[in-house]
Specification:
Layout lengths: L21 H4 L8 H16 L9 H12 L4 H9 L5 H7 L9 H5 L5 H10 L10 H4 L6 H10 L15 H4 L1 H23 L3 E3 L2 E8 L2 E3 L9
Antiparallel strand pairs: 1-2, 2-3
Helix pairs in contact: 2-7, 7-9
């Protein structure tokens, strides 16, 4: 989330719908950082298959795609969503929820990834916000069983690149290089201006314009300094 959250009611209309957690789609106004972990799971899924994972056009459509991918929510999942005060939960369960659907995560992703990747996706894309992995667990930080599962994914090949080996852009990130780039750009602008203005030159920080009007040169008067 972009800022700290509190116990006060929050808007459910956050995050692009393709990456919106089920509790948000069902209208809850009391959510946690678990909505960010859901989004992270879908971003990871998108990177694996090189295309967005769930591309619903409406909330109901998006929830239907979730059921096809993750299977129908269990009774515990529904209880957790109900406890969050999702106002659209009852209507969705009565009118649109398909029951008895199986989990298709492994079928969809195992051929292009690994068992540990599927486990990570399953932890991030849990229906229940309570069961969803935290950021620390996903990073393998901690001593719990979930953290150990998350750590296995980070130890798989190819390993994460060391920070020092990541590509950098010194012209943008290095202050000195950026200053030099700005200086060269300024010199180029000056040369272009001189070529366009003919006799126009820059002297002592002021411009002299030659408008070729009977040889008269117009010199703008200096502005009086405020006392």
């Amino acid at each position: 989330m972009a800022r700290e959250y509190s116990v006060r009611p929050l808007t459910p209309g956050v995050v692009t719908i393709w990456y919106r957690a089920p509790e948000l789609l069902l209208g809850t106004k009391h959510y946690t950082p678990a909505v960010d972990m859901w989004s992270a799971g879908l971003v990871l899924a998108e990177l694996i298959q090189s295309e967005p994972c769930l591309t619903g056009e409406t909330s109901v459509d998006q929830l239907s795609l979730m059921v096809k991918l993750l299977g129908s929510p269990t009774a515990d999942d529904m209880a957790a969503l109900s406890a969050m005060g999702c106002p659209d939960l009852i209507r969705w369960r009565r009118e649109s929820l398909a029951s008895g659907r199986a989990d298709n995560l492994e079928r969809r992703f195992l051929a292009v990834s690994t068992v540990e990747t599927v486990n990570l996706l399953r932890g991030l894309l849990a229906w229940s916000p309570r069961a969803r992995w935290t950021a620390a667990e996903a990073l393998g930080k901690g001593k719990g069983q979930i953290s150990l599962s998350g750590e296995k994914w980070w130890k798989e090949n190819p390993r994460a690149v060391e920070k020092e080996l990541l590509p950098t852009y010194p012209e943008i990130r290095n202050g000195a290089s950026l200053k030099g780039l700005q200086h060269r750009s300024r010199e180029a602008e000056v040369e272009t201006s001189q070529a366009n203005l003919g006799d126009a030159t820059i002297r002592d920080g002021g411009y002299v314009f030659d408008f070729q009007d009977e040889g008269n040169v117009y010199r703008p008067s200096k502005r009086a300094r405020a006392m």
